[in-house]
Amino acid sequence: MIIGFIGFGKVSQNLAKLIQSDDIAIVTSKENRSQKTIERIERSNVEVLDSFKEVAGKSDLLISANSPKTALSVAKEYGKYAKGVYLDLNNVSPDTTLQINEHVNQLVDGAIIGKIDSQNPVLYLSGEDANELAFLNDYIETKILSDRIGDASLLKLLRSTYTKTLSAVLIESSCLARKHGLEEEFFDVLELTEGNDFREKSASRINNTINSKKRKSEELQEILEYFDDDELDMVRAAFEKLNR
Known about the structure:
- The protein is of the alpha/beta class and about 240 residues long.
- About 50% of the residues lie in helices and about 15% in strands.
- Strands 3-2-1-4-5-6-7-8 form an eight-stranded mixed sheet.
- Helix 4 (about 70-80) packs parallel to helix 5 (about 95-100), helix 6 packs across helix 7 and helix 6 (about 150-180) packs across helix 8.
- The model has no long low-confidence stretch (mean pLDDT about 95).
């Protein structure tokens, strides 16, 4: 089997690390990639092809793990060359996923819950062809939600309304505590109710949010556009804060 990645960010890099088998070849391309991505590819044990068109044409499973902003354009450009299952792992709304489905023959909607580089990320899948990817459970815990395209995207979106809003509040609260010289004590008192590892988890959440603020802002924008008729005051405030 050949698994191809369009884009090779952190998600792709860690999935390639998890899927280790003599029966599976991992391929990608350096075509139009940044120097940082090229270095990430070179550190990984993957085969490099000349173009992403070639990657799409040779792969039994083609994985798109890019950004919400480019997910649809990637599907439009390369979906028609995919000969097998096209797994979209981008944090996009169900509406965007349904648009992607128009350009892909065998789309599986996917969502990774938890940090991909943690010890226990979980991959959620939905779509009529989701069962074809049950073998991934040998490498990463995999759960099939339904045969409906959009369910995995919606689950991820719902989770993000909580986690990304919470991250913005955490950043604001910790900055306020630091301003008043009580940052250490602030996390001490939070650990009394949130658990002994809350300080460590908070630092990781804050750093991850700051380092990926552009991508997370795009994800929040997807949420606001999809749930346009619902009251999302906290999500909107988090979106505005990340943009600032």
